[in-house]
Write a structure and sequence with these properties.
With 261 residues, the protein is α+β, with helices and mostly antiparallel strands. It has a domain of 48 residues. Helices cover 32% and strands 24% of the residues. It has 6 helices and 11 strands. It has a 5-stranded mixed β-sheet. The radius of gyration is 23 Å and the shape is globular. It starts with 6 loop residues before the first helix and ends in a 6-residue tail after the last strand.
C-alpha cells in the first residue's frame, strides 16, 4: 500500500497562514500611516463589547461600533443620495439587484442626533396633550408611555448617525469636513422596490471589529454586549477612535472616570 507523507502539506499550510497574517498586519500598518482620516471621541453609548459575559486576563477583547439612522431618512435614502452613490433612475427598480458598495458619512453628536431628540420629545408632547383631552383612554395612556420610552432610549443609545452616502470620497468629505465629528466608512446599499421613485436603504456598514490592546482591557471590559440593552448607569468613558487610510478604525486611547473617593 502506498504511504502518504504530510510534511510538505503542513509546511505549505503554515506558509499560507503566515502570508495571510502578514497581509493583515501590512494592511493594518498602512491604515495607520500619517494623520487619521477622522478622530472621534466616543462614549460608552457608541461602543459594545463582542463576545460572552466575561473577559479573562488572557482572552481577547473586541468592540463593535454602534450607530443609528438619521431621523429624516430611515429606512430609505433620497433620490439625490442614491444618484451620488451610483444608482440610476433609469434602472428598473422592481426586480431585486445586488447590493452596491458605497462610502457612508457618520456624524457624532450633531444635528442628526438633535433632530432625533426633538422628534421623540415632540411625540411625547403630542401624546401627553392627547391624553389630557381624554384621561381615561387606555390607548392614549399607552401611546404616551411608548413615546416616553422611545425618548429615554434615544437619550441612552448611540449619538453616531448615518447622514449621507456617495461613491466619491473627496466629495463626501467636502460635505462633511469636520474630522472630529464626521467619519467616512464603507458600507452597502440596496435600491428600494418602488418602481416609480429612486430610493434605497443601507444594508450595513463594513466596519471591522475593533481590537482592544491588553493595556486597555480594564476600562472597556464592562461595556454591554447588546446594542439594544444599554447598561443603566454605566460608567462614562472617553474613547478616542481613529479611522485611517483604509477607513478602518483603531483605538487611540481610553479615559475612564476616576473612582469615587
Amino acid at each position: 500500500m502506498k504511504r502518504f507523507r504530510f510534511p510538505g502539506l503542513l509546511l505549505g499550510g503554515a506558509a499560507l497562514i503566515g502570508l495571510i497574517n502578514a497581509f493583515a498586519l501590512g494592511g493594518a500598518w498602512y491604515n495607520r500611516q500619517g494623520e487619521p482620516d477622522s478622530l472621534l471621541l466616543l462614549s460608552e453609548r457608541e461602543l459594545a463589547r463582542l463576545g460572552g459575559p466575561g473577559v479573562g486576563e488572557n482572552s481577547g477583547l473586541t468592540l463593535q461600533l454602534l450607530w443609528e439612522m438619521a431621523p429624516e431618512q430611515p429606512p430609505m435614502f433620497s433620490a439625490a443620495q442614491m444618484r451620488r452613490a451610483g444608482f440610476s433612475a433609469s434602472e428598473p427598480a422592481c426586480r431585486r439587484r445586488p447590493e452596491r458598495a458605497v462610502l457612508v458619512a457618520l456624524e457624532l453628536d450633531g444635528p442628526a442626533y438633535r433632530r432625533a431628540l426633538e422628534r421623540r420629545q415632540q411625540a411625547v408632547d403630542n401624546a401627553r396633550a392627547a391624553l389630557a383631552q381624554a384621561p381615561e383612554d387606555g390607548s392614549r395612556r399607552s401611546a404616551l408611555e411608548n413615546a416616553e420610552r422611545e425618548l429615554d432610549w434615544t437619550l441612552k443609545r448611540s449619538r453616531l448617525y448615518v447622514v449621507d452616502i456617495d461613491q466619491d470620497r473627496a466629495a463626501l468629505r467636502q460635505r462633511w469636513p469636520d474630522r472630529t465629528r464626521h467619519a467616512i466608512v464603507r458600507g452597502r446599499v440596496r435600491q428600494g422596490h418602488d418602481c416609480h421613485a429612486l430610493s434605497g436603504h443601507l444594508s450595513g456598514l463594513d466596519i471591522p471589529a475593533i481590537h482592544v490592546p491588553q493595556v486597555l482591557h480594564a476600562p472597556l471590559a464592562e461595556l454591554p454586549v447588546s446594542h439594544w440593552q444599554p447598561t443603566p448607569g454605566a460608567a462614562p468613558l472617553r474613547v478616542q477612535l481613529a479611522f485611517g487610510r483604509r477607513l478602518e478604525p483603531w483605538l487611540r486611547g481610553v479615559e475612564a472616570p476616576a473612582p469615587a473617593q
